[in-house]
Design brief:
single chain, alpha/beta, 9 helices, 11 strands, 35% helix
């Protein structure tokens, strides 16, 4: 079975919805043949806490210090990087610069989970839009626009799970999501095939793979219809573990990720420049 050897999408207990300390993740990665492990905890913003989603604003220094110490301890076994998975908010563009130049963060990956309005993190989709086609399309457009702003910012190395909201919105808005693919091509940013989505949405034991969520191809991520569209563009893809606990590193989700790559003849890369 094919397995990834470089992974830049890794979380720890610090975010509040994952388990396992940094060293436990490293030890499991080594056992599973991973040669490059990038930690990408959910972005810490100054004086902004979001319990159960991201580390508290006072945890940044310890996060960086801990990983840097482990880099040295395991330097003969694995290459380790310290990064963050961040939403892009224009208000915080100076903060992203500070993270990368003064706070010891080596790379950022773009994971646009929340909108940010009036000082609060907000979910992109509302209950009201479930039965309102026009409102739902506006919400999808807002999400896509926010991802594109992140692409244009130049701060990010990977576009994480741009199809993350397909279980919410389905593939009927592929024309909107196509705009992300177009910008990824223009700006030479790889699109992630997210193994966290595989763990949530796919029946891993089936070959060829089938789906857990409603048995409906429209409502899964990584989404086959989305990646079929990706294949029509000159865009790189990269497989991201999106690991939230040590034992997820040993799941056989890699096999489905490679299945998607081969089925749609995608251009797979396994390294980013840091």
């Amino acid at each position: 079975m094919e397995k990834i050897t470089n992974n830049y999408h890794t979380h720890t207990y610090r975010c509040g919805h994952a388990y396992g300390k940094e060293e436990e993740m490293i030890q499991e990665a080594i056992k599973n043949g991973i040669k490059v492990l990038g930690f990408s905890e959910h972005c810490i913003f100054p004086n902004l806490n979001q319990v159960g989603i991201r580390p508290n604003s006072d945890e940044l220094d310890d996060y960086v210090k801990t990983i840097n110490e482990l880099k040295i301890k395991y330097k003969d076994q694995i290459k380790i990087y310290v990064g963050m998975e961040a939403e892009y908010y224009e208000k915080y563009k100076d903060w992203y610069e500070t993270l990368l130049t003064k706070k010891g963060i080596e790379y950022l990956i773009l994971g646009q989970h929340f909108d940010f309005q009036d000082g609060y993190f907000k979910y992109f989709f509302s209950k009201q839009s479930q039965n309102d086609e026009d409102l739902r399309r506006k919400e999808v457009k807002n999400y896509v626009d926010s991802v594109i702003k992140g692409i244009h910012s130049g701060f990010f190395k990977i576009i994480c799970h741009p199809d993350f909201f397909f279980p919410e919105a389905g593939t009927k808005y592929l024309d909107e999501y196509e705009r992300i693919i177009i910008e990824a091509e223009k700006h030479h940013l790889p699109i992630e095939i997210n193994m966290g989505g595989i763990r949530k949405c796919f029946k891993i034991s089936d070959n060829p793979p089938t789906f857990k969520i409603g048995e409906n191809i429209d409502n899964v991520y990584p989404n086959p219809k989305f990646f079929e569209l990706v294949s029509k563009y000159n865009v790189d893809v990269i497989i991201g573990g999106d690991y939230h606990c040590p034992n997820e590193i040993s799941y056989n989700t890699d096999e489905i990720a490679y299945f998607i790559v081969k089925k749609y003849h995608l251009h797979l890369i396994d390294k980013i420049d840091i």
